[in-house]
Design a protein that fits this description.
Blueprint (H helix, E strand, L loop, with lengths): L2 H13 L1 H6 L1 H6 L10 H16 L10 E4 L10 E6 L4 E5 L2 E4 L3 H5 L1 E2 L2 E2 H8 L8 H7 L8 H24 L2
Antiparallel strand pairs: 1-4, 2-3, 3-4, 5-6
C-alpha cells in the first residue's frame, strides 16, 4: 500500500455521485470526510484512471464533434457567442461556427456548479472591463485569436467528460 494508492482511492471517492450528494452541503463548509468502501483496490484503480484522464486532458484524443461553419460575406461581422445548448447537443462558438453532436454524458461531469464544458466556455468569453481606462488600455483579449485552440480544447474536454462518466458509471 503506497501513498499514491491512498490518494487514488480518495480521488475516486470524491468523484462518487452518492458521496457528492450525501456530503454536498458539508463539502462547501469543511474538509471532506472520506468513508471506507469495500474493495479498496477497485476504488484505487478507478481513482488512478480518473487522475490520469484529468491530468492528461491535453493529450487525449479530441472527441469527433461535427463542426458546422456558415459561409459569410466579407461585410458580415463574426461575433463570439460561446453558448451551450445542452438539450440540442451543440455549442455555438460564434455567429459563424457551431459544434454539434455533444453527448448528454459530456454535460454531466461537473466542476462545482458548472459542467466542465460550461467552465471552458465561461473562461474564454470576452469580457469588457467596467473601468473605461482599463477597457481602453488593457483590454487586449480577442476570442478570434484563440478560436481554434478553444475548439480543440472543447473537443478534448468532451472526451474527458464522457470517459469520466463511464468510469463513474462503473462505481456501485
Amino acid at each position: 500500500l503506497t501513498k499514491e494508492d491512498i490518494f487514488h482511492y480518495v480521488y475516486a471517492v470524491l468523484h462518487h455521485p452518492a458521496y457528492r450528494a450525501k456530503y454536498e452541503i458539508n463539502l462547501k463548509r469543511e474538509f471532506p470526510r472520506i468513508q471506507f468502501y469495500e474493495d479498496f483496490w477497485k476504488w484505487a484503480e478507478w481513482g488512478k484512471r480518473l487522475m490520469e484522464l484529468h491530468l492528461g486532458y491535453e493529450t487525449v484524443a479530441a472527441y469527433p464533434l461535427e463542426r458546422e461553419t456558415l459561409k459569410v460575406s466579407e461585410t458580415f461581422r463574426v461575433s463570439p457567442r460561446l453558448i451551450a445548448r445542452k438539450e440540442q447537443g451543440l455549442i455555438e462558438i460564434d455567429t459563424q461556427t457551431t459544434l454539434r453532436g455533444v453527448p448528454a454524458a459530456a454535460w454531466e461531469y461537473r466542476l462545482g456548479t458548472y459542467s466542465a464544458l460550461e467552465w471552458v466556455l465561461e473562461r474564454y468569453k470576452e469580457k469588457k472591463p467596467k473601468d473605461p481606462t482599463i477597457a481602453e488600455k488593457f483590454n487586449i483579449y480577442r476570442f478570434a485569436e484563440y478560436k481554434e485552440q478553444v475548439i480543440e480544447l472543447l473537443m478534448k474536454v468532451t472526451t474527458v467528460s464522457v470517459e469520466t462518466m463511464k468510469i463513474i458509471g462503473e462505481m456501485p
